[in-house]
## 1
Amino acid sequence: MPTPPSSPGAERVDGSTVRIGALVPLSRPGWVEAGRHLLAGLELAVQEVNGTGGIAGRPLELVVRDTAADPQRAVAAVDELARLGVAAVAGEYHSVVARAAATRADTLGLPFLCSSAVLDALTEQPTDRVARLAPAQSHGWQLYADFLLGAGHSRIAVAAEPSVYWASGARILRDRLAPRGTVAELDMRALSSADLCGELVGLRATALLLLVGHPEPAVSIVRSVRRDQRLSKILIGAPAGQPEFATWASSLGDDGAGIPFLRYLPERLGPLGARVGAALRARLAEAPSFVAFEGYDTVAVLAAVLRSHGTDRARPAGTWQHVAVEGTRGRIRFSRTPGIGVWQWAWAPVQVVDRDPAEPTRFRVLRAG
């Protein structure tokens, strides 16, 4: 069933509100914790927009739909949101789902601002209707590969599941590491966690990257590798960001520390980011992830576009290049980037971080770019 809107009256059709559709993974097999953080950021920003007069005096409201990480469900949601007359669609965390939603929104002539998904090919064809806040996968994952090389890792094993997103990530890593290292891909459909450990020993891998789902099989893999004395010196990495969220730490405890991942935050937040971070922490009852900041920035951008260019859905599509918004993580502008078919913020700050083994609730910045 469709997820109810996040606030009462969000589906009024009397023209008294300006509605934005929000696509968020709020049920399994979606990454629910990421969805919760994304929605918290979206809702906080809507609250603040309305506290400063809304859009030309009209309240801004979210119409939230749960994608459950299902591309077909996301497409159906975009169709429904278009019928409801939303001015734009925003959100989504899972890259494959975002790609389906963006393609459908483009077909319907509906502006779509992608909050968090990173797959380079977000649409099948170049379009003026779609923009993205998150860095493209090639940008962030190349930085991650550079981190591996800088740390002395040239024999990399990848534990992977079948997915366009995972396959794209493996290709980026392989291409970046090729001159100085090797990448062996291990199909987790055919291997148990114990079998994987034997393969790693045979490959003499110095690093294992998890290109698999969370919590499973990622949690089981980490436990198996940590308990295998033959692999005591191997680095486990998770470029997609699994260790960012509290459930990772609660599931793995100390075993979940020292696993580098990508996140999209500056080393230090400015005044706006610090204020929003405090508000998000109060709303979530835990430290906000970068995904929560992405949600907030999404609404900040859309509010600026709607205030400047009106709520007719045909207008925002051609205005991304005019955006200049102070976001929580820096000034946001969109441009055409080679190889990217949508308007892109190039780039949000990127970090390689891990949880400090001495204090797993604290994050260490290992590389930034």
Note: The chain has a mean pLDDT of 94.
## 2
Amino acid sequence: MLRALSRTGRRRTLQGGAALAVVLGLLLWWVLPLGEPTPSGSLTFSTGVRSGVYQRYGERLRGVLAKRMPEVSIRLQTSEGSQQNIERVATGKADFTIATTDALATYLRDGKPGAERLRGCVRLYDDYIQLVVPRGSDIRKVSDLAGKRVGVGQKGSGVRLVADRLMTAAGLDPTHGITPVPAGIDTMPDQLRNGLLDAFFWSGGLPTTAVQQLSDRFAIRLVPLEAPLIKQLRAAGGPTRYYRSAVMPADAYRNAQQGRAVTTVAVANVLVTTDRTDPAMTEAFTRTVIDSRDRIGSEVHAAQLVDLRTAIYTDPLQLHDGARRYYRSVKP
């Protein structure tokens, strides 16, 4: 009798274990793509200058990716900005990056190395063009920059592209009509505060920490970019069609704006990779970017603007197959 009971208990234990194994198997089938291993290996994410939004976003995203993709080693690589980021990914020096759509369109138009291999994963937040001057400055519009010392961004940055285009649209020669200073957001605020610059251009999400900190310790003002200038800028066609009129809300930089909204130009950012990147890796990366927007957005406010409804629109780039698979998986 005791042996019979023992055999019955063992049988129930085995049946329970088998049932648990089935449940775990179903859960793994649901979570992981059928027949594909969890992403593993290493990748490089090209970001931006140390105090810019790209770098801060990259640092927070790496922390989330480490938890969601524990078998993947992620290295961040600072850069001058969008133009250098694109070149790195296109030529295999980095695996993922962030870049503005106008810079991407320029790289594609010029047929630079690896352009045909570039792919998009997520349309991210918008960059806003910020023309910063001391509050007492006589610069009221872009054409007033004539003869001034102007921070225009580093050679490999996206801000250099848009700054040159804005000044050209305003009738200024960006090389000889001003004194161009090729500096990044990591140094331009201090140069302005110390009287080494009369103005600087910046292209970044709102608020950009370096501009915010400058406004807290030095009286600055944001110069409006007027509608006729923006219309002229867009009229050039090609990459400039990615610019759109926008308004920086009055509370973006409270001290600098003093309760006034500022008209400007905005341009979208895209998470970029290439067709060399494994689809499983890209799918997991894309999923993490979307799922982490609120967590990262609590520290990097621009990340809150990542929207699943528009994330799929990565024009001018084709969507990566792995990213497409993610969007299909969450389609209602």
Note: Residues 1-11, 16-35 have pLDDT under 50 and may be disordered.
